[in-house]
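Q: My hope is that you can spare some time for a protein that puzzles me. Underneath my words sits a plain record pairing an amino acid chain with its backbone structure tokens. Those tokens are not coordinates but codes from a learned vocabulary of shapes. Thank you; the sequence and its tokens follow:
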Amino acid sequence: GNTVLFLSYGTPLNKIPMLTNLNTPLLVGGSLKYFSTGGTGHDALTAASGTGYSADLGVLYPANDFLTIGANYHNAIGGTITKNDGVSDVIPPTLKVGIKCALIGREGASYTVHNVRKLYANVDYDVNNDGTNVPHLGLEFWPSSNLALRLGSDNSELTAGLGIRFSGIEFNYAYHPYNGIQDNATHFFSLGYLGESVKRSLAVKLTGTEDKKIIHDDYVNISGKVEVTEGTDDAPAGPINVKVNGVTIPVKPDNSFSSEVPVDAIGKKLIVVEAEDSSGAYDSAQVRVLRLVQFADVPDGYWARTPIENTGTVGLVNGYPDGTFKPEQSLTRAELATLMVRAKGIKLPDRQARQIFKDVTPSFWAAKYVEAAYMAGLIKGYPDKTFRPNNQITKAEGITVLARFDNLRLAQVYEKPYWDVPTSHWSAKYIQAAKEAGMLSYIDRNRLQPDDQLARSESVEMLSKTSLAGKEIEDLYSWEKGFRREYVPTRPSKRAAIY
């Protein structure tokens, strides 16, 4: 019996650590081989048993999608089989060169795995040291991904065979006659595990804009790169197509992309980036963007910028038509009533406003808001049946209205809530309740100055601390809900969830 054991390895040349800068498609490989020969049943056969070692070296060069050139130097280091009787047999070296041509289909990056119909023509030539050079010719036809039919000529001997692949396992059979002698005909069998064919895959990597981004502009820059992992299934792969919310954008030769995407509306926007090629490879990524409202007169660093932007974004307060908020402007009683009704979401009457107060006529710009606020118990008038809508509201009055707005629980006041608010002050209970609820955390040095005018910025700061506004602002900054599907992706992806 004769046995040869192989330990083989192959790799692209530029995957070798010191050669990574080489721009070449060349593949290299080699085999270490262990030979064992021997026999039983007679002393002469036992004495002829022996072992030896050698090695093979090989290269493959994919010239294009249809042609591969190869060379293999068998037993490159020579070697001998040393037997028990002291006699050594030389292991002869052989140089094999050949080509593999795809007559139907493409060769591409795959050398052992086929899953489309293909026809290959193969030619190689053995160059031996003794001058007995041997040509080999063959045709290999894959009518499907699971079956190969083979026909060949080995030194003028006609050969045939077939291969069957299933779930990454390949069985091969070949029939080889020798010198026309029937008894010398040989049947070759092999069983190998090649692994399942791997499809080409794409991965969208965003670099210019991270997910969960907060912006103020009406656009966001989306940039990144599509990383490609080549498969072994030889599926044709054309140019990569990238879409952002269904709109195709340019892709550079290195598969990078960049595009400005409009964010027209205030609030949340979901952006889906998709990449696909003609082989069916697909991937997608998403960017969740939150656009906050911005006012021209509320600069960075302004003490109440955050509550102004938050309440403005969720629609609890509005600015002026010129894009300003006028945060230091004093609030009138009519404006506060309007703010409370809008924040509470109270529906205005679809008729002409009734005259609740003597000085608020039905034609007054805020008449319906004043009526709705009064009916909801948010405001009260003066004993003379007036409301004085254009009077600038004091801090004490504003805190009282907001305490009613948030349905705060009132209790007896035994100590001054602030140094300048005695327990006998008409609004002390409301001020104490608002302080305990955290609405007045912006007050400095324990001085409220209750009779000073209430600025718009202060009213919004307090409004943002109410339970209603707090819940809406909390939902605003929740990245797990509120993102509407503006565009249906080409296909679902676990990386592009829709919220």
About this structure: The first strand starts at residue 2 and ends at 12. The chain has eight helices and 21 strands. The two ends are 68 Å apart (CA to CA).
